[in-house]
Amino acid sequence: MKTNPVVEKMLCAGRWVEADSTFPVYNPQDGRLLAEVPSASKSDMEEAVEGAHRAFTSRRPWPTHERMTVLKKAAAYVRENQESFAEVIALEGSKTITEARGEVKRAVQTIEISAEEARRLKGETINFDQNEGGENRVGYYQRFPIGVIGAITPFNDPLNLVAHKIGPAIAAGNAIVLKPASVTPLSALKLAEAFTAAGLPEGYLSVITGSGKDIGDTLITHPAVQMISFTGGPEAGDAITKKAGTKKLSMELGSNSPVIVLNDADREEAVKACVSGAFSAAGQNCIGVQRIYVEEQQYGAFLDEFAAASAALHVGDKMEERTDVGPMIQEKEALRVENWVEEAVSEGAEIVLGGRRDGTFYYPTILTGVPHDAKVAKEEIFGPVVLVHPVRNLDEAIELSNSVNYGLQAGIFTNNIQKAFEAIQYMDVGGLMINDSSDYRIDEMPFGGTKGSGIGREGVRFSMEAMTEQKVVCFRLNHR
Q1: How many helices (H) and strands (E) would you count in the chain?
Q2: What is the three-class DSSP state of 237?
Q3: Domain 257-442, what fold?
Q4: Which of 113, 318, 382, 453 is the most exposed place for a label (fewest CB within 10 A)?
Q5: Sheet strand arrangement including 22-26
Q6: How confident is the model at residue 3 (pLDDT cuts 50, 70, 90)?
Q7: Tens digits of per-residue pLDDT, 42-63?
Q8: pLDDT tens profile 219-267
Q9: Cα–Cα dist 234/455, whole Å
């Protein structure tokens, strides 16, 4: 990426365009200006949506092999330029360069999976003769693209979460209009370049940058948009559901992920996984470890080893290979985390490690003795803070795990298969990782949660199913 600030263009209905005004994108680590990005207007968003609708209706049906070719070429483009993609992710966001490289690899895989799943988007035959009087009927159902997808993505995975919107939408034959997070729009614009270079038909993708207050409602309420795919916070998700009307919705709204460590667990593995799960991406991760419930016999040793391993993490320049934890996305977010921790301490919590802020950096923090009704225990902190609690048994751990209004993913460490299945049965989450932390995901699995964690499931095939409609076909045959 260029070191001097540049003026970017956005992709609107197949054209790279400027806007009447721009907004700055800064490196959160040092406040350096990286780029000026178009600040789109309501009319820009309307143009993008209407262009997407025209592209979709004029090309329908779009052959599967052509969709697959575009996706494969886009994935190849990202792979060939993976270091420049990683630099963009790291410079505009919170990830270290090492974490950013991992995200690029995942984004390539997400797009490649989308190409593979395009050929597998099938229906089934229906036995109409199961009903009396249906003996002379045969038929099937088939999946068809729904039209224009409106997508809104967050800052914490600025490339792969964008790929999780664009890849399935294109694979299913839809057009898509995407609004990336305003603090990290450069990765999304760079991915749009990959799809343009891959020969994506004009109008099938728009990446519109700007304030959600200015253009969000236009995207959400436009009658040509048939589905909203949103990843973000619960308050924004609730507002979208009230505005969208009769549209399909897919929402991933975060979590407050628990991990349970039982007496029979491999403590070394549990410590290693929980350190990574709690503090990667500076804790700004929807499935990051936030609460750890440790059975009493393991508690003291686990806490000592967990604190020691966490203290060994290197906090610093995110562009250095040795750095484990970089800055948070904005200083106001680091201040928010600082305030939440201070509030918990005032309510009786003890800081075992960390509790220190330096500008946008918030150091890995471990709390014990946190009241279960404290804000940091009930809400998603989205920062490098983890709570460790002793529990008497698995039943108590499950009860506490389920006590918040989130249910995205969880983890449990145990070598007892009976207890593992008890957790599977009774933990109210969308995904449970056995002998791993909550922070494990592959891009093909169904991903989503219960309660306040969202609506529906992502993961390429599952997103494609949501982005299509089933159409039943029935032939009534003449009697011989």
Answers
A1: 15, 25
A2: helix
A3: Aldehyde Dehydrogenase; Chain A, domain 2 (3.40.309)
A4: 113
A5: 6-7, 33-38, 22-26
A6: low
A7: 999 999 999 999 999 998 899 9
A8: 999 999 999 999 999 999 999 999 999 999 999 999 999 999 999 999 9
A9: 11
Hey, what's the torsion of the CAs at 451, 394, 431, 272, to 10 degrees?
120
Strand partners, 10: 17
One-letter amino acid identity for 38? Answer: P
Percent of the chain topping pLDDT 70 = 99
% pLDDT > 90, the chain: 97
**Which residue's entry shows tokens 């991933």?**
252
Cβ burial 171-188 (10 Å sphere, 16+ → b, else e)? bbbbbbbbbbbbbbbbbb
Query: Which is nearest to 184 in space by CA: 24, 399, 388?
Result: 24
Contact 60, 236 (CB under 8 A): no
DSSP 44-71: HHHHHHHHHHHHHHHHPSPPHHHHHHHH
Active site residue 286: yes
Superfamily of domain 6-253+454-471: Aldehyde Dehydrogenase; Chain A, domain 1 (3.40.605.10)
- Which of 8, 286, 305, 458 is catalytic? The answer is 286
- Residue 477 structure tokens: 């045959």
pLDDT surpasses 90 at 214: yes
- Listed by start position, the domains of the chain span 6-253+454-471, 257-442
pLDDT exceeds cutoff 90 at 372: yes
Q: In the block, which residue shows the tokens 């990446």?
A: 207
Per-residue confidence (pLDDT) for residue 2, from 0 to 100 = 47
- Whole-number mean pLDDT of the chain? 96
Which amino acid is located at 49 in the chain? V
274 is catalytic: no
**Which run of H or of E encompasses 331?**
helix 331-346
Which one of the listed residues 99, 103, 252, 333 is annotated catalytic?
252
Do the strands 365-368 and 205-207 form a parallel or antiparallel pair, or are they unpaired? Answer: unpaired
